[in-house]
Amino acid sequence: MLDIKYLRQNIEFVSEKMNQRGQSIDFDRFTSLDIQRRDILMEVETLRSERNNVSKAIGELKKKKADASSLIAQMSDVSSKIKELDDRLRVIEDDLNAFVLTVPNIQHESVVAGRGSEDNPVVRTWGEIPSFSFAPKEHWEIGENLNILDFARGAKITGARFTLYRGLGAALERALINFMLDLHTGEHGYTEVLTPFMANRESMTGTGQLPKFAEDLFKIEGMEYYLIPTAEVPVTNIFRDEILEEKKLPVYYVAYSPCFRSEAGSYGKDTRGLIRQHQFNKVEMVKFTTPETSYDELERLTANAEEILKRLGIPYRTVSLCTADLGFSSAKTYDVEAWMPGQNAYREISSCSNFDDFQARRASIRFRREESGKVEFVHTLNGSGLAVGRTVVAILENYQQADGSVVIPEVLRPYLRGKERITF
RNA sequence: GGAGAGAUGGCUGAGUGGCCGAAAGCGAUCGCCUGCUAAGCGAUUGUACGCCCCUAAAAGGUGUACCGCGGGUUCAAAUCCCGCUCUCUCCGCCA
Predict the structure, then answer these.
(1) Which positions of strand B lie within 7 Å of protein CB atoms?
(2) What b/e string do you get for A349-360 counting C-beta neighbours within 10 Å, with b at 16 or more?
(3) In a 10 Å sphere around its CB, with 0-12 CB exposed, 13-18 middle and 19+ buried, how is residue A93 labelled?
(4) CA A104, CA A100: separation in Å to the nearest integer?
């Protein structure tokens, strides 16, 4: 959510930024609602002030046992007028609020204007793309052959886009989760948290999934609870409606969670394999920082995600999302894309974003400056560290052997009781 | 799921219709005092939204709202009524 005062004073600038994002927004409506709101507010507050004063006088008169009936009658009218104005004000404020909640964040100045993912600048690449003496297979073939991924039975149990892992497949997923958590807590300074996997409407609104993207979520029937699409939601909302001390910042949290996405509108995309599932595992990093440090923190956060791939020995590249690709709440996003030999392409495995104060304003997450005592919004950041299912894909495809087996990256072996290879 | 109790500022806690944005204590900040520390004394100590002032911001002035959340009664609600949420205790069920 953008600051209403800021919006009021910089409407042209914001409008231009939104155009670059391919968003057309009805700012005339905003201006009109904003003016109406302030007009009514002034009127109703004046009346309230009058009522407060006269009511006090009525109290005095009553104490002296004097007659106050004419004042009471007069205030009765004022009160009904106040009630009427309050009702009108509520409608306008609801409208205004609904409007502001659907305006995306303003992108950082370093974000390039583009028309699609082909315009995302590549920031860096790492590792050597492996060459194979045979035609590399896609991960679903490798996984099914090794009997560690079972798509048919996942579909039987639940439906399309749910997968059953078996044996070393299940163990590999679990090993990756532990490896990632251990690295981020042990070497990158994060504190591990384990959160609820359902969140309420307020939390979903706080991080920006609601009200605009309800169709992407699974909702619990009969309740205002939603399955989380990412741990970003519960973790960022840890401090919703709180004021933190400046010296506590930055806060680094890392969380494992399953993620649930309806993937509405993605029919026909990535229909095979683990790439796009309704349920997948992810380790998520979240930071709460001061405004002046958040872009440095974004660089470090992205490096923390990349470090996982380095240790696993998986080649990757990092791109900076252009305006067309940038998410609703984000001011700047780096996507880390792992090399997938079976698909002969880089595929997103982590997305690291700085939201500036966009989420913090929605969720009311603030901090108090030590120096001045002033209260300001924090900046929030998050990034996958990493998407676990997609990391399994990268391992299967990059470490596949001519005989169909898969070598386990060395750093994972301690998590798999020393096992070096997945075989038949 | 059933029965009961509760929710007040950073914390503890008073407050059953007007004198309450809210006592008192603790904590914190600043000042004084003091070989150091501690104690003591004094002052300050919430958030949001308007308006005025101002080139703008800040500061300042002023008004309104906020005592879990949402409604209602009343000239007037932390206080009375209704609904909801959450917490605690007991019972039941349960990994």
Answers:
(1) 18-19, 46-51, 59, 63-65, 71-72, 74-76
(2) bbbbbbbbbbbb
(3) middle
(4) 9
Q: Are A382 and A284 in contact (CB under 8 A)?
A: yes
DSSP state of A138: P
- What is the Cα–Cα distance from A424 to A386, expressed in whole angstroms? 27
Contact A311, A412 (CB under 8 A): no
- Distance measured from the CA of protein residue A218 to the C1' of nucleotide B34, in angstroms: 66
User: A141: part of which helix (H) or strand (E)?
Assistant: helix A139-145
Residue A244's CB is within 10 A of a number of other CB atoms, namely: 16
Please tell me the distance from the alpha carbon of residue A204 to that of residue A208, in angstroms, as a whole number: 6
Min mean pLDDT across A15-24, A311-320, A323-332 is at A15-24
Residue A194 corresponds to which tokens in the numbers above?
């384990």
- CA separation for the pair A95, A99 (Å, rounded): 6
Q: CA-CA distance, A94 to A83, in Å (whole number)?
A: 17
Mapped onto helix, strand or coil, the DSSP state of residue A10 is coil
User: Which residue, among A420, A423, A390, has the nearest Cα to A408 in the 3D structure?
Assistant: A420
Q: What is the mean pLDDT of chain A?
A: 94
Distance A4 CA to B89 C1' (A): 46
- The ipTM estimated for the assembled molecules is 0.90
List of protein residues whose beta carbon is under 7 A from strand B = A 4-5, 38, 41-42, 45-46, 48-49, 51-56, 58-59, 62, 72, 75-76, 78-79, 83, 90, 243, 366, 368, 373-375
CA A39 to C1' B22, whole Å: 31
Spatial contact of A278 and A162, defined as CB atoms under 8 Å apart: yes
Share of chain A above pLDDT 90, in %: 87
Which amino acids of A are annotated catalytic? 261, 276, 348, 351, 390
Beta strands in A72-197 (DSSP E): 122-126, 149-150, 164-165, 191-193
- Specify the residue for token string 């007009």: A39
